């Protein structure tokens, strides 16, 4: 079973939230233990942030098969996808999909039924577990694979509850789970980028918006300017100034005509986590 560090155990004392997190890990271990293949769902835009190495170690310890599934593949270029897939395949099999439009779902299905056709439990069914951080698209992936609206889907963080088995074809079952909440330290920016928390509940949400702006400037400045309908003229590319530009353009103003930074920050984060902002 997963054992938290001494420091983490100290955090559980008198902390209902931390005890809840430990409960999530008990569910995750149940999934890994009972399933033959584990799909770790990643956000294709940032697989390095959405991976959970503790889960991967657990899968290895139980001698189960791991497949990385880079979801939201339609939000970045095929060239970038292939580059990230190549890196992840050094660790385990990896496919990329988009649950919203059947993007390469056939490859994932083929991998499951071809490569693991001999891995079946005593009931003759392949048992598949799906894990991942909130908002990486686990529920959407299940719905796309099974062609059923079996799991509730929402852009709000943390909307899947409990554990259920879902029929997947004639010879397989999918075990759904709650969105994984990391037991280790996870910084505010990473949680915000993943959409693990609603923007209104993120302390210092401005830092998350800063990071999104920085990612946009690095990956595709033109796409950033086009989406927000602004021209970035600041020589230092200061995210604070860019957010002020966005606030003014969106007419997010306070009394006296001052830009409402908080509203702009929420808009930026929601545009990113909702998939409208792409680069």
Task: Describe this entry's structure for a reader.
With 279 residues, the protein is an alpha/beta fold. The chain has helices spanning 6-12, 16-34, 47-50, 53-61, 78-88, 105-115, 138-146, 188-194, 205-219, 221-228, 239-249, 261-273, and strands at residues 37-43, 65-71, 93-96, 126-131, 164-168, 172-176. A six-stranded mixed sheet has the order 3-2-1-4-6-5, with helices on both faces. Helix 8 (188-194) crosses helix 9 and helix 11 (239-249) crosses helix 12 (261-273). The longest helix is centred in the N-terminal third of the chain and has 19 residues, at 16-34. It is elongated and about 70 Å long. The two termini are 40 Å apart. Residues 1-19 and 150-154 have low confidence and may be disordered.
List the topology elements:
Elements: H1 6-12, H2 16-34, E1 37-43, H3 47-50, H4 53-61, E2 65-71, H5 78-88, E3 93-96, H6 105-115, E4 126-131, H7 138-146, E5 164-168, E6 172-176, H8 188-194, H9 205-219, H10 221-228, H11 239-249, H12 261-273
Parallel strand pairs: 1-2, 1-4, 2-3, 4-6
Antiparallel strand pairs: 5-6
Helix pairs in contact: 8-9, 9-10, 9-11, 9-12, 11-12
Could you provide a short overview of the structure?
This protein has 12 helices and 6 strands. The chain has 279 residues and is α/β, with parallel strands linked by helices. It has a 6-stranded mixed β-sheet, with helices on both faces.
